[in-house]
Amino acid sequence: MLYLLAVSLLWAFSFGLIKQQLTGLDSNLVSFIRMGIAFLVFLPFLRLRNIQAKRALVLVGTIQFGLMYMAYIWAYRFLLAYEVALFTIFTPVYVTLIDDLFRKRFQPFHFAVAVLAVIGTGIIIWHELSSPAFWKGFILMQFSNLFFAFGQIYYRKLRGQQTHLTSEASVFALLYLGALLITGFFAAFTTQWATLHVSTAQWLTLIYLGAVASGVGFFLWNFGATKVNAGTLSVFNNLKIPTAILVAILFFGEKADIVRLLIGGSILIGALAINERRNLLMETTKGE
Questions:
Q1: 129 within 8 A of 186, measured Cβ to Cβ
Q2: What does the domain layout of the chain look like in residue ranges?
Q3: Residues 194-240: pLDDT tens digits?
Q4: Measuring CA to CA, how many Å separate 69 from each of 63, 153, 281?
Q5: Percentage of the chain modeled with pLDDT above 70
Q6: For labelling, which of 24, 28, 150, 231 has a CA lying 20 to 30 Å from the CA of 224?
C-alpha cells in the first residue's frame, strides 16, 4: 500500500508539468519519448530466460502505458490540468468492473458508484459541458482510464503466473517495450519531423516524466497493485486527484471554482468511500 501512496503523491505534479511544458508537442511523440526513456531505465534489469508469457506482458504495456498515454496526453489539448486529473475519477470504477469481468461476475453496485462520480464531476465542470472541446477531452480521458485499468488487472493476473522471476524489475522492460512500439508507430505518422523543435525545458520535463514519473512510478504502481485487492487498488487510483488539483491551482496558477470543487469533490469522495466500505465488508465476510 505504501508503494501506491508514494506514486500517487509523485504523480500529482505531472499534470501541471505536461500542461505547461508539453502541449505544443505532438501527443504521440511525447508518449514515445517518455516510454523510450522508461524502457532504457529498466532494460539493464531484463532477464528474458526467467519470464513466462512474454508476449502477453508486451501486450499489457501496449495497452496500459502506450494507448493510455497517447489518449491521456492528447486530452491536454482540450482540458486544463486539474480537469485531466479530475477525470481520472472514473478509473476505479473501470478497475472494479474489469476485475468483475475477469472473475466472470457482475455487480450493479459499481454502476451506482459511477453515477455518483458522474454527478460530482458534473457539478465541478457544469459550465463547460456545452463545449465541443471539453467533450473531446472527456472522451479521450475515458479511453485513457479504460486502458490503464485493464492493464493493472491483467498485469496482476499475469504476475501470478511468473513463478521464476529473480526480481520484479526483470519483467518491466517488456511492458515498456510494448508501449514504445505502439507509440513509436503512431508518432512516425503524426509528428511534423521537418519542423520539430524541442526546447531545453521540454527535454528536462520529458526526462523527468520518462525516468521518474513513468519509469519508476509505473513500476512501483504495478508492483503495489499485486499486493492489494481490487477495492484498495480502486481507492488509490483516485488518491492522486485531490493532490493533483491542489498542485495545479497552487503551483501552476490554474483557476477553478473552489465552491463547486468542494461540493463536487465531496460527492466524489463519498462515492469512493461507499465503494471502499463495501469492498472491505465483502473482504471481511469472505474471511469469516
A1: no
A2: 2-189+199-287
A3: 889 999 999 999 999 899 888 888 788 777 777 766 656 666 666 66
A4: 9, 17, 34
A5: 77
A6: 28
